[in-house]
Amino acid sequence: SVRGTPYEEKDLFVKNFMKVFKESLPKDTVIKEFEKLDFTAIHEWRKNEREARLNRTKEEKEKASKETNAKKAYYAHAIVNNIRERLGAVGLEPPQLFRGRGEHPKQGLLKKRTFPEACTINCAQDAPVPRVFGMPGHAWKDIVHENTVQWIASFEDGLLGEVKYVSFAATSGLKGAPDLLKYD
């Protein structure tokens, strides 16, 4: 996804990428120059996968969209005071090379997949804990009952070392009611 972009030429990005890339290879692998590496096969595979995805029939696209929406629907709402409230972004970023903004010192490092073990769920004490969907053998890091905050889940961003939060959607009553009172 970086090929053909300015990141391919950035020294810091290449240096950080090489560090991560070498760690994933056998210890006795010797790589001295990034320029001599050939990622053409990977680039072609990604390009072909993208073209295949774009060239699907309307029915195939609709089926895939329904499957994706069905997976997200389980986590898209929360019941608060017996009212179904919509949540904001519930999907996490896929694993990828981190780009950052400007000259971020961690650009080029691998942003790894976030597993349930890095996620904390915030719910009422009597609420059912949502199951970990489609990941047998995994469990949430923690379940807390903080009724004074407006986040429903938090997770650790392994690369940046930050805690990020899943909150309610801007269209939810919890977010809209204070705004309405503010301007009334």
From TrEMBL:
Coiled coil: none annotated. GO terms for molecular function: DNA binding; DNA topoisomerase type I (single strand cut, ATP-independent) activity. One of its GO terms (cellular component) is nucleolus. Residues 4-167 form the DNA topoisomerase I DNA binding eukaryotic-type domain. GO terms for biological process: chromosome segregation; DNA replication; DNA topological change. This is DNA topoisomerase I DNA binding eukaryotic-type domain-containing protein.
